[in-house]
């Protein structure tokens, strides 16, 4: 699961860098939405790991 969490965080960081480099508003917006989605998946993976560790 840690590998999955790391993957999600890496993709979020990549999307953030892409957004910073984008010159077109629609591309920047798409990258920010992608970044938010990857971060959401990372939070969900972290919560799942925490719940699993409690058991």
Task: Tell me what the structure shows.
With 55 residues, this protein is mostly helical. Helices cover 91% and strands 0% of the residues. It has 2 helices and no strands. Helix 1 runs antiparallel to helix 2. The longest helix is centred in the C-terminal third of the chain and has 30 residues. The protein is elongated, with a radius of gyration of 13 Å. The two termini are 16 Å apart.
Summed over residues and divided by their number, the pLDDT gives a mean of 94
Order of helices and strands: HH
Helix-strand makeup class: mainly alpha
Low-confidence stretches: none
What is the CA–CA distance across the termini?
16 Å
Main beta sheet: strand number and arrangement?
A: none
What's the total number of strands? 0
Beta-strand percentage range: under 5%
Q: Whole-number radius of gyration?
A: 13 Å
How many helices in DSSP terms?
A: 2
Topology:
Blueprint: H1 2-21, H2 25-54
Helix pairs in contact: 1-2
Characteristics:
55 residues, mainly alpha, elongated
Write a brief caption for the model.
This protein is mostly helical and 55 residues long.
